């Protein structure tokens, strides 16, 4: 019998655990449990379980060594798959020169960095841990944290992970918990104050939610803060890309010689033509009607608020998850301006082979009509359709308090939640039943005759 036995288990039942326990008691076998997230298919979707580790550089693997992480030899551990140690666990292709590799800490299989979808290490600016601030109050701590974080260039993405200590007031037990603030894009120095204000609000809400769980632990202090700074590149749209579906509600201006598809799409809405709507020459004479002062071509999503302010417009931008299916539309920018005097321009953002392009959506409601051709009133913030405009207006009062997103309903068969972990249920030591349906009102009555049997009313129930 082999000294090591590797077992891949996707589902464990209670009887399987008993059998496994007997196996471990009677045989000197070491069993390693590997979840299904360690398969090559799941490796390209999840980051958890991966560490920035590269193979030890040899004459064969020259160029694989990364900038961080410790070296590790693959042959020290037998992989769970049939992939050779010279091939990627996802694409199956062999090594290439000057290419980074990633090793999974769970199954020790090597993958190309691009195959697992991890960012290149050159996209990192800095990663620091701050633990020298002694301040128990969370708000004051984060205000002191501002002076510790040094930022030299903009725009960038900031991600902050706060390690906090919670303690019980009676037993003096202490535990640590981590709050991970979502990565945010900071365009200029002026946006930092808004970022820190949002960090304080979200962190306090997380602390309150932690304390309301009933564990008895109260917030004590912040132990350390991990700050990660990433490079950020504007998402820009440039030259012409043909559509992969047909729609009468899309005007795709064919700007093959410039990067002004954003401008031509807006002019196509403000100055419509009857024939040849896709030609740039139909809108050349109106080019100066739109003020693009301080805006660089191709136009980035972050520059759209400037265009709105300079031209008194309301601009919304949408994209397609599937470039061939208009029903996969989702919002990427929804204007927060509200004015009946402004023109509302809806743009479609499409991508192909690293290139991007803006198109005009003439009528979003007609574009998102159902399969029967019935027009619906569409919420631009969540792409939810309604049959009546009054219902849409009521919905918008609630929906626009949240970030733009697309509502995705669960698939049939996966839309019912059931409790299956019955083995976790325990009997309670006692149960109290209370009935508050009646109130006992005291009553006064005559003194009964002690020589006769009697019933004395003392209260009346209501």
From TrEMBL:
The lineage of its organism: Eukaryota, Metazoa, Spiralia, Lophotrochozoa, Mollusca. Residues 46-87 are annotated as: Disordered. It comes from the Eukaryota. PROSITE patterns: ZINC_FINGER_C2H2_2 (PS50157). Residues 46-75 have a biased composition (Basic residues). Keywords: Membrane, Metal-binding, Transmembrane, Transmembrane helix, Zinc, Zinc-finger. Residues 377-404 form the C2H2-type domain. GO terms for molecular function: zinc ion binding. The keyword Cell division does not apply. It comes from Mytilus coruscus (Sea mussel). SUPFAM superfamilies: FYVE/PHD zinc finger. This is C2H2-type domain-containing protein. The chain crosses the membrane at residues 18-36. InterPro entries: Znf_C2H2_type, Znf_FYVE_PHD, Znf_PHD-finger, Znf_RING/FYVE/PHD.
